[in-house]
Structures are given as C-alpha cells and as structure tokens.
Specification:
- GO terms for molecular function: microtubule plus end polymerase; microtubule plus-end binding.
- The chain folds into two domains: about 90 residues; about 130 residues, Alpha Horseshoe (Leucine-rich Repeat Variant), CATH 1.25.10.
- Helix 2 packs parallel to helix 4 and helix 6 packs across helix 8.
- By secondary structure, it is an all-alpha fold.
- The radius of gyration is 18 Å and the shape is globular.
Length: about 230
C-alpha cells in the first residue's frame, strides 16, 4: 500500500477492512488499535471515493474521547481522511450524534473535526444543506459548560464564516450574531484560520475536496446516501 498511489476496492479488501475495524473496536491494546487506525487512514487516501462504503463505520466520534495521544491522533487522521471520500451529507447524522455525546471530549473532537473539514472548503464546495442540519448542535455547543467544547464550536463557526461570508453566516448563526462576546471569539478564530488556509491553498478549496466535488459532479446518478447505507 505504501508504494501504491491508488487502491481499488474488491470483495477481499472490503473483508479485510471490516476485520480491521472489528479489531479497532474490540482490542484493548492501544498500539494495536493505533496501527489499525493508521492503516485505515492510508486506505482512505489511496482508495478515494471507493472508501465511501466504509465511512459510516469509520466516522465514529465517540472513539475520539480517547485521551492517549498515540491513539487519538491516529483516529483523528482516520476521520479526516475518510471525510474526503464521501459528501458530508452522507454522514450528517453521525456528526449530529457526536455533537450530542455525553462525554465533552467527544463533543469537542466532533466539532474540531468539522472545523478542519470546512477549512478545506470554499464558497463553491461548501456543503450548505448538511451544515443547516448540523448547525443546531454547533450552536448548542457554543454555550457548552466545557470550555474546550465552546472553543471547538467557535472554530466551526469561523470556518463557516471564512467560506460564505458574514451575510450568509448570519442566517446560520441566528441569535448568536447578537452576542458580541461570542462573535469576537469567532472573528479571532476566523483571522487565524484565514491566514493559515490561504497560505496552504490560496482561495481555492483543498485538492482532495475539489476531487471529491468532481466525483460527485461527474457521477450525478450515484446515490451517495444509498451507497453508504448498504453498510449499516
């Protein structure tokens, strides 16, 4: 896999991936689980949209409450890689569930995942319908009792603001636009994100997001949600 830039899905490979996911779910050895997550992340990058069938199983934000960096970092990389293989609309429910978890680390990590994903978008690729569904959870997190959850929510709002601008953001943010304290924090996050993203991608979306967009545009007959539902 290290030497192959493109991996094609096959029944045998899908069986192997399901086995890896089972090990990730059940094995208590952090090093084993970390290696599994790293392998799956590499597969997501190499398989591109072929990996979409695995997204519902991979994007499990409750696992991100893991505090040990050796595992959490690999899980974060896996979620980020998987997110470029299928439209956000296909796993919106998983994001909403993650934002509502009882563990604050799960909520914070779900929001951070979303902020990283949206940071790779621009106005042309912005998944507006999915964000409309997710936004109530983000707004609730912006008033969370846990500071890390609140800050993560502000980062999501900053990423949205960077993509679509203030007029469009106001309709998504609702009453929070009248909260000066929160909007100052969102603005500060936006400035940091803006400079970082512009330095990396310019004003364009990230290459992997553009590639996913092209796949969706070039295959309009593909029912992405149905593709993902077969694994549930």
């Amino acid at each position: 896999m290290e030497s192959s830039s493109r991996v094609v899905i096959s029944p045998q490979l899908q069986q192997i991936m399901n086995t890896i996911l089972k090990v990730m779910d059940k094995d208590v050895n952090i090093n084993v689980t970390s290696t599994c997550a790293k392998s799956m992340a590499k597969l997501a990058v190499s398989m591109r949209t072929d990996f979409a069938i695995m997204v519902p199983k991979v994007v499990a934000f409750d696992k991100l409450k893991e505090k040990k960096a050796v595992l959490r970092n690999e899980l974060v990389e896996l979620c980020d890689a998987a997110a470029t293989t299928a439209p956000l609309e296909c796993y919106t429910e998983a994001v909403c569930d993650g934002l509502a978890k009882s563990n604050p680390q799960s909520r914070a990590q779900t929001a951070l995942f979303l902020s990283r994903l949206l940071s790779r978008h621009n106005s042309l690729t912005f998944p507006i319908e999915a964000i409309k569904q997710i936004m109530p959870g983000i707004l609730k997190c912006s008033s969370d009792a846990d500071g890390e959850v609140r800050e993560a929510a502000f980062r999501v709002m900053a990423a949205i603001l960077r993509c679509v601008g203030m007029p469009a953001s106001k309709s998504l943010f609702g009453e929070i636009t009248e909260d000066k304290v929160k909007m100052v924090k969102v603005s500060l996050c936006t400035l940091i994100l803006f400079e970082k993203i512009r330095a990396e991608f310019g004003d364009k979306a990230a290459p992997e997001i553009l590639r996913l967009r092209a796949s969706i545009t070039n295959n309009p007959k593909v029912k992405w949600r149905l593709v993902l539902d077969v694994t549930k």
